[in-house]
Amino acid sequence: MTEHISTLSSSGIALRRTPGPLGQDNLLSIIEALLDPGVLAISLWFVAFSVEGELLPAYLILSVMVFAITFPGSPRLQSTIARLITDICFSWLWIAALLFLLGVATRYIRLFSVDALITWLWVAPSIQVLAHLSFRAIAPYLLMLQGPPRRAIVVGMNDQGLALARRIRETPYSRIELSGFFDDRDAARLDGKGSFPLHGKLRDLPAFVKESRTQFIYLSLPMASQPRILQILDDLKDTTASIYFVPDMFVTDLIQGRTGSVCGMPVISVCESPFTGSNGVVKRLSDIVLSLPILILTSPILLIIAAAIKLGSPGPVIFKQRRYGLAGEEILVYKFRSMSVCEDGGTIRQAQKNDSRITPLGAFLRKTSLDELPQFINVLQGRMSIVGPRPHAVAHNELYRKLIKGYMVRHKVKPGITGWAQVCGYRGETDTLDKMQARIDYDLDYLRNWTLKLDLHIILKTVLVVFKDQAAY
């Protein structure tokens, strides 16, 4: 199966992304990236309106150049006020000097008012300082909007692990709450190592992660422990936690592997969602931009199908079933009812060929995938995405997570209406373990190689698959 996937790998379609920093996917980091470039551009607009009375094209072009030069902005949230002011002044002097030399060399500077440029020289850094101080004042409230802190544990109570733990504890805006350590050594041998709780041996780690719903795991183990590390990674495949190495190691097939830092400490991700930081914004915007017009354009079809279902057989029009969503959380997925039953219990039988439970209208809806149209409402709600691993019923999840290693990793992203597995021949019934294993392999391949281009390719290919596929019952 591995060879099969490498042949059809999504990496052949996806454009590889530039590695980005880890642990920087919260709202504060996004604002920090935009703060300095935005303030400098807006301050120039303000000066232009004040001096010139209008925003001339020359000022607009200059503001775009300034934004491009300074993006992303430097993180200054944790600097002292004195250091903040000093950094802003030195940075602005360098940028102003560069723009001045460029303007003189190209004679572009003649398009600007001398009064406007002199005014901007002192207005820009002043507004920058004011913006950063205001940002500090509202930062705690912005953190609250993002929900509770994310739980983390460190595996290996050594000097490197303790250094990371102290950084996490001393960083006020990381949104990471350290629960403690796991280590195979006895507490007596670790006495004096630090004031962090020891939760147990490495064998206790998977159960603790699932029970406490830990989101981040930092592996701080020596390279000589490679067999033990591989065993830990194998045991953690039944969780949805993001896993990182501290320090640099490379011993397994990575899901969105990249280098970065957490609270200033270098780490390498082992298993991470592709939708962190700006990628998450791009993914969410693309879902909204595509799903909203689809719902509007298909609204007459939705009404006709709803009426036909209501008149054709007793039961609700919309079938709601519990599925696993992002991070393994239960969600309700909407579909047009295509069966005479609405199963959502501990045991659910997959639809099969000539299944007696499927209504005549339901057979047509399932064949054409029209029964999936209500899931675009799930997309607008933020529970699903247009493209992603297909959600399975909770009963099926609980079965296959015990049979297929890495099954739960597919829940690092939101489930999708369509997915890479579905357009590669694994749509419909998975009546054997091999078929489900193949579907999971394709889902993980999608996580490794995601790009917006790959999403668009899958959407276009889905349309073709729906018309010619014979696998959906």
Q: How much of the polypeptide forms β-strand, as a percent range? A: 5-15%
| Beta strand count | 11
Note poorly predicted spans: 1-8, 14-24
Domain count: the total is 3
General form: flat
Q: Termini, distance in Å?
A: 25 Å
**What is the residue-mean pLDDT, rounded to a whole number?**
80
Widest sheet: strand ordering? 3-2-1-4-5-7-6
User: Biggest sheet, open or closed, and with what strands and sense?
Assistant: 7 strands, mixed
Structure report:
The relative contact order is 0.10. The protein folds into three domains: about 30-145, no CATH class; about 145-270, Rossmann fold, CATH 3.40.50; about 280-470, no CATH class. The protein has helices at about 1-5, 25-50, 55-70, 80-105, 115-145, 160-170, 205-210, 225-235, 280-295, 300-310, 360-370, 375-380, 395-405, 420-425, 435-450, 450-470, and strands at about 150-155, 175-180, 200, 215-220, 240-245, 260, 265-270, 320-325, 330-335, 385, 415-420. The chain has about 475 residues and is α/β, with parallel strands linked by helices. Residues about 1-10 and about 15-25 have low confidence and may be disordered. The chain has a seven-stranded mixed sheet with strand order 3-2-1-4-5-7-6. The protein has a two-stranded antiparallel sheet with strand order 8-9. A two-stranded parallel sheet has the order 10-11.
